[in-house]
Design a protein that fits this description.
The protein has about 200 residues and is an alpha/beta fold. The protein has 11 helices and 4 strands, in the order H-E-H-H-H-H-H-H-H-E-H-E-H-E-H. It is about 55% helix and about 10% strand. Helix 5 packs across helix 11 and helix 6 crosses helix 7. The longest helix has 18 residues. The radius of gyration is 19 Å and the shape is elongated.
């Protein structure tokens, strides 16, 4: 099917509805427009900044490519490093309250900063981004942690976490629901095995 044919059929389908659509946005958007890596590649690159005792492959071999479990192993290995090494002293002072929530928080803090500092907008795709800004939609649900959507859609209100999706008053249009957390709130990021267990418990309520 050609692009023009698909566009025509898609437009015809949307015209059947009397309300604007909600978009569900996944990691493909971040990979395309911010040049961010896949989840596996992200953990691999990020792990190089943590000062871990062993190579990344060692930790991968412990979990047989279970990525949430891999994040848990990395987070637990990193916990003591973050609290004791001089290189993280500045961040310890800045984020010590968040970091004290549980032993996985230092990992999430540094992961959020890593994503923030490594997302690079692809200027060659600016025309697509401009078109996205013009899209008529009621809102967005996304599993992405980065802030790309809130930056290009500054008039949209951002809700972080499942609770805000399920319990907030969001009758107005223009909402972005970040159901897996956001780098602006490192403690909200869903990345470890424990995070996903809690996520699924809430989903099944």
């Amino acid at each position: 099917m050609s692009v023009n044919s698909f566009s025509a059929k898609f437009k015809s389908h949307l015209n059947q509805f009397h309300t604007s659509p909600f978009l569900f946005v996944g990691s493909g958007l971040s990979r395309r427009y911010l040049k961010l890596p896949t989840w596996y590649q992200l953990l691999e690159e990020f792990s190089k900044t943590l000062g871990l005792k062993y190579q990344f492959g060692y930790y991968v071999s412990l979990v047989e490519n279970n990525l949430p479990q891999l994040a848990t192993v990395l987070a637990e290995e990193f916990h003591e490093i973050w609290w004791t090494k001089e290189i993280f002293e500045e961040n310890r002072e800045k984020y010590k309250e968040i970091a004290s929530i549980n032993k996985h928080q230092p990992f999430k803090i540094e992961l959020a900063l890593f994503i923030k500092n490594n997302g690079e907008l692809d200027s060659t795709l600016q025309q697509e981004i401009d078109l996205l800004k013009l899209a008529v939609i009621d809102g967005i649900i996304t599993t992405n942690w980065d802030i790309f959507l809130s930056e290009i859609l500054p008039d949209f209100e951002v809700f972080v976490g499942q609770n805000q999706l399920m319990f907030s008053d969001h009758t107005s249009i223009g909402d972005i629901f970040k159901i897996h957390g956001c780098i602006s709130k490192p403690e909200s990021i869903i990345v470890t095995e424990e995070d996903y267990e809690q996520y699924h418990k809430k989903t099944n309520i």
